Amino acid sequence: MEVRSETVLPLKCDKLPPSMLPRTRIQMWFVCVCSCILVWTCLVQLLANGQFWSPRLLRRWNTTFGFSETGHLTNVKYFSIHSELATPAPPTHRSSRVYKSNGYLRVSCNGGLNQMRAAICDMVTVARLLNLTLVVPELDKTSFWADPSDFADIFDVRHFIDSLRDEVHIVKRLPKRFSRRAGSQSFMMPPVSWSNESYYLQQILPLFSKYKVIHFNKTDARLANNGLSVELQKLRCRVNYHALRFTSQIEALGNKLINILREKGSFVALHLRYEMDMLAFSGCTEGCSEEEAEELKKMRYAYPWWREKEIVSKDKRVQGLCPLTPEEAAVVLQALGYEKDTLIYIASGEIYGGEQRLLALRSAFPLTVKKETLLDPNDLKHFQNHSSQMAALDYLVSVGSDTFIPTYDGNMAKVVEGHRRYLGYKKSVLLDRRKLVELLDMHKNGTITWDKFVIAVHEAHQKRMGQLTHRKVIVDKPKEEEYFYANPYECLCKKAACDSGARA
User: Fold this and answer.
1) What's the distance, CA 280 to chain centroid?
2) In whole angstroms, how far apart are CA 246 and each of 87, 93, 117, 121, 256?
3) pLDDT digits (tens, 9 = 90+) for 253-292
């Protein structure tokens, strides 16, 4: 058969029916515009999640274009502690880790905000170790502060769940089949303090063969500082510095505070723990009148779970176990070289004795401010009578400050110290109160001159500026050793150095 070769002639558009005519130039432009809009919409969504999806590249884009944490366009100078993360956040959109859950873990956190914060990190780690489904933690409402806030009032629940879904399955509430109405019973217990992996694997995990739900009714310091695998230690950091994000309202107001301070220049966050609850709990009455000392003693007896009742204040102070008074803090700041025009932000609740007790500090440093003096009362209206939410604001400002100086090494001081180390070893002056009390008394009674006092204060704090150091271990004395959340060494060091572990 002969195959004919035919020449294909171009078709003439004017002879085609209208339905077969090619797109006009206007139609092509319309398609291009729609495509651009679609691409930019996708880009904005990526930028909104850039901090976690592609940390290094997208965070740089966020800074360039001025996008906030929520993806909204903001002032390019807008400050946020999230932009200062020295270590990129782990991706939040990985696939969930596939495993068979061994049961449900409920936890009731006890204490103040930062004590509960550390406990939440520990409980996520325990749930990961034991392959448990964690119920969103319950916060303490019966402590001294009597804060009615729930987890969702302080932290971003959705972010908390999503950012950890490749590690731990977290649910907002127990399934109905495990409710009391369904006849289900959970086993309630407090884990043993400062416990390691072996305790949870050998003592706690077997309980889930009998009880599908276990409720830890106390969670403070229930996981060891040391002796855990590097993987678990890094998970604690991931929870603390990436998953536990405050609500958008708290973040926005905290960043507003930082911006107000930044406009005035660099600033010092002074965590002045001269508050009624701390003084009563510790038995420290330095600077108080006899009437005030008696009031603090009565308060200590009013709380049965505060075990120590009869306390000699002078002995506590000499041992360095008391928060510095505002007067002592002023003298120490001057000795450290801070000038009269230093901007100081007081990160604390109500100072015992009110404004009268702050006169010496304000006299030495006139630019001393608090959130109540920087913000309009309407800004704080939503947070009033919610001590944990107010503490969250101070936490954000303390982490974002140029220098952080705590006058007592309580939970907030330790957790902020660790966060600042994680952000790249931002300067934190960790006061040696035992040495300072000795020097303050010597200067007060004229034993040493001001110049010698200044030299001694500087020498005592040369290695107490928040530098990278191995965490100190005290065998069989976990309460006395360095706290993991103050110095999360495994999350800061290189792999080879981490393998050597913490050391004394």
Assistant:
1) 26
2) 19, 19, 11, 14, 14
3) 999 999 999 999 999 999 999 999 999 999 999 999 999 9
**Secondary structure letter of residue 204 according to DSSP:** I
C-alpha distances in Å from residue 235, one per residue of 126, 229, 243, 458: 10, 10, 10, 36
Provide the phi-psi class of 354: left if phi over 0, else alpha when psi is between -120 and 50, else beta. left
Tokens read off for 201: 């694997």
pLDDT of residue 15: 46
The neighbour count for residue 365, using CB atoms within 10 Å, is 22
What does the pLDDT read at residue 34? 67
Note the residue count of the chain. 504
How large is the C-alpha radius of gyration of the chain?
28
How many angstroms separate the CA atoms of 328 and 172, rounded? 46
Low pLDDT (below 70) residues in the chain: 1-34, 36-98, 181-183, 494-504
DSSP state of 203: I
| Distance, CA of 291 to CA of 330 (rounded, Å) | 25
- Interatomic CA distance for residues 20 and 162, integer angstroms: 50
- Which of left, alpha, beta for 385 (phi over 0: left; psi -120 to 50: alpha)? left
